[in-house]
């Protein structure tokens, strides 16, 4: 028995207590201890039942992430589950906190399950590009049927105890000390002569149309293969004896272990945890934060205010006029009412947020005591400087002044105040109360404790916060401008916007770039093109047809027409034939003979442009690490998670081949396709982007 499992006896019941803080992950020592504990209970004269319980805040939260990538050691988890299930004693799992992945698989190998009302269960393996590998695809369908099993396994979602009980995953929900509850339940089973009840011996579940379920799951996952493969594993539970089904599950699990998608999702998993871990913030205490001011109550300002209220901050929102202030209050109330309807907050909390925690004002003096203020006004340097001048005058010493600018120079904004050390960029993504990404833009004179406070705010708001340096567009929008330009070039040269959108959706993006433009509003890109026109490089190829779309008053979804035409009440749009006419006219004007593009070539060029610009962003220090770029694209720009991000995708494709393609494209357009110095250096040294991530972690 290892020190990770405690053994005690209470009458006829042996208790195995898992002691592997903080969340009882299934380390090698825990697996060994469970096997030894079962043997000890069976050898203990008079013991009739075993209760497995977790110490601390969880039953078992899943695999031990410190063992990821290492050669697994026996006993393997499927064997541990079989050992528990095969016991001649009655085995009860008493669950509290979370029982996830292998933790739920341990519980499913017990004969009975009891849970605390606050407990949650789930099988999140699909989020790592895998399927459950210790019998859940075989046991769960026998216990609760195919459809609910597929829902849980292919989505990876967590369910609360009440739903788990209604589905039949747990037998009883009882509040109390988990050990006491488990022992009482086991004693009752003994007293009533309840039988052992191994799930593996239950009848196979009824079949469904497996091919339809597979195809539907693959489509829903936008090309992610692990949820669809889980359908095949559950199919084995319906069609094969249990032991053969276990072999089928293991075969699928091991095949998925070797896929690029699994590598991408593991990279995303670890990068999400590493992205906010910055050496420069070690030992730096953030400033106190209780009240937040927001300038501007449009969609963005109202979204930031909503996120701040939901995180427990007091909010003072400033608008120019009374009617605008009331409209902002209405937007925030509408956002919060959505949280109320979804059960995220109570009516009492909603009332407190809207009536007490929120103050809407037209007077800048109302910001006198706030700890941090975020401006979310029109994207114009003159307007921003005017706002910061007012903030400089009214905000208390030590208050942090933040800009939500998407592109503009935060150093220039900071220079318009008497306290540049207190100025930072906090670039939220719309809708700000839903989107997970926050770019923390560090200006030249931003104080370290102001940076730390930006990250502390991001954590409080449940955001993925990424450090960015100052340049036009920071990390995300700078890279976006480049890969969007690559798409524009392909349109001039012969591809259609609609083919490009479809190719990139097939690659795994939620939407293609032209559909995204329609969603965001084509007038935004139009304004950016005008802003950059004076400083544009003479070699840059800039199409004029997008400006003509805007000049006709067509800005996308909000006007009902852009690249696509949007009918009221219909989801999505249909291609706008006027766009194709404008493109054909511009090609003729430029004397371009259009050529065909394959979908594969579209994806390769689009991704090459993204990676090349991202390598420049990392090489210049705008992003500190390649993983920072990956997290920005994953959480702000709809990049498919199963590729891990553009830098991970590039590593998986191979940097030498990607550089060779970029150099071949440069023969057509040497200015746009100039290879990033960092990319050339890595190829010359035989290294990749992940090497830079590892180097930064040392």
Automatic annotation (TrEMBL):
Subcellular location, record wording: Peroxisome
Keywords: Fatty acid metabolism, Isomerase, Lipid degradation, Lipid metabolism, Lyase, Multifunctional enzyme, NAD, Oxidoreductase, Peroxisome
Predominant place of localization: other
Reaction catalysed by this enzyme: a (3S)-3-hydroxyacyl-CoA + NAD(+) = a 3-oxoacyl-CoA + NADH + H(+)
Gene3D superfamilies found in the cross-reference section: 1.10.1040.50, 2-enoyl-CoA Hydratase, Chain A, domain 1, NAD(P)-binding Rossmann-like Domain
Pathway: Lipid metabolism; fatty acid beta-oxidation
PANTHER family given in the database record: 3-HYDROXYACYL-COA DEHYROGENASE (PTHR23309), PEROXISOMAL BIFUNCTIONAL ENZYME (PTHR23309:SF49)
Identification of the protein by name: Fatty acid oxidation complex subunit alpha
Organism: Sulfitobacter pontiacus
């Amino acid at each position: 028995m290892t020190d990770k499992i405690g053994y005690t006896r209470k009458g006829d019941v042996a208790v195995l207590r898992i002691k592997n803080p903080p969340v009882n992950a299934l380390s090698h020592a825990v697996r060994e201890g469970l096997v030894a504990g079962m043997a000890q209970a069976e050898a203990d004269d008079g013991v009739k039942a075993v209760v497995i319980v977790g110490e601390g805040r969880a039953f078992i939260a899943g695999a031990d992430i410190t063992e990821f990538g290492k050669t697994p050691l026996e006993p393997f988890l499927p064997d541990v589950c079989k050992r528990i299930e095969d016991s001649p004693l009655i085995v009860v799992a008493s669950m509290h906190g979370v029982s996830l992945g292998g933790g739920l698989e341990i519980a499913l190998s017990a004969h009975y399950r009891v849970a605390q009302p606050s407990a949650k269960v789930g099988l999140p393996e699909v989020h790592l590009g895998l399927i459950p590998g210790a019998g859940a695809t075989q046991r769960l369908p026998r216990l609760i049927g195919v459809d609910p099993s597929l829902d849980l396994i292919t989505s990876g979602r967590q369910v609360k105890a009440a739903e788990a009980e209604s589905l039949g995953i747990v037998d009883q929900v009882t509040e109390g000390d988990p050990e006491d509850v488990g022992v009482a339940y086991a004693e009752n089973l003994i007293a009533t002569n309840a039988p052992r009840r191994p799930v593996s011996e239950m009848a196979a579940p009824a079949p469904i149309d497996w091919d339809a379920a597979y195809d539907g799951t693959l489509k829903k996952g936008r090309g992610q293969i692990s949820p669809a493969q889980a359908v095949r594993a559950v199919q084995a539970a319906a069609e094969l004896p249990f032991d053969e089904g276990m072999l089928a599950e293991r075969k699928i699990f091991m095949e998925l272990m070797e896929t690029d998608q699994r590598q991408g999702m593991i990279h995303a998993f670890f990068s999400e945890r590493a992205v906010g871990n910055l050496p420069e913030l070690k030992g730096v205490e953030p400033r106190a934060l209780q009240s937040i001011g927001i300038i501007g109550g449009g969609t963005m300002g109202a979204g930031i205010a909503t996120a701040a209220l939901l995180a427990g901050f007091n909010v003072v929102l400033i608008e120019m006029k009374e009617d605008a202030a009331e409209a902002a209050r209405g937007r925030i109330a509408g956002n919060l009412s959505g949280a109320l309807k979804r059960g995220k907050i109570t009516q009492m909390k909603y009332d407190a947020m809207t009536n007490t925690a929120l103050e809407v004002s037209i007077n800048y003096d109302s910001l006198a005591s706030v700890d941090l203020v975020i401006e979310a006004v029109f994207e114009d340097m003159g307007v921003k400087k005017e706002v910061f001048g007012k903030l400089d005058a009214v905000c208390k010493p030590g208050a942090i002044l933040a800009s939500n600018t998407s592109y503009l120079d935060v150093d220039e904004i900071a220079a318009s105040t008497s306290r540049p050390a207190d100025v930072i960029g906090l670039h939220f993504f719309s809708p700000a109360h839903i989107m997970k990404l926050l770019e923390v833009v560090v200006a030249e004179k931003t104080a370290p404790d102001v940076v730390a406070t930006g990250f502390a705010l991001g954590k409080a708001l449940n955001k993925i916060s990424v450090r960015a340096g100052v340049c036009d567009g920071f990390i995300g929008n700078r890279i976006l401008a480049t890969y969007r330009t690559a798409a524009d070039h392909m349109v001039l040269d012969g591809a259609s916007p609609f083919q490009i959108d479809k190719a990139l959706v097939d690659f795994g993006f939620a939407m293609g770039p032209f559909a995204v433009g329609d969603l965001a509003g084509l007038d935004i890109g139009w304004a950016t093109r005008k802003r950059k026109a004076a400083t544009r490089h003479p070699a840059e190829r800039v199409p004029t047809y997008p400006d003509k779309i805007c000049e006709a008053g067509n800005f996308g979804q909000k006007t009902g027409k852009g690249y696509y035409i949007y009918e009221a009440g219909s989801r999505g749009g249909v291609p706008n034939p006027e766009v194709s006419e404008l493109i054909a006219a511009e090609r003729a004007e430029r004397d371009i003979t259009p050529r065909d593009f394959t979908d594969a070539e579209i994806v390769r060029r689009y991704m090459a442009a993204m990676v090349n610009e991202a390598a420049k962003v990392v090489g210049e220090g705008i992003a500190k690490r390649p993983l920072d770029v990956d997290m920005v694209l994953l959480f702000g720009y709809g990049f498919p998670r199963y590729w891990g991000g553009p830098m991970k995708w590039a590593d998986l494709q191979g940097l030498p081949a990607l550089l060779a393609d970029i150099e071949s494209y440069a023969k057509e357009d040497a200015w746009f396709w100039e290879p990033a110095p960092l990319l050339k250096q890595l190829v010359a040294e035989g290294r990749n982007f992940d090497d830079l991530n590892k180097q930064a972690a040392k």
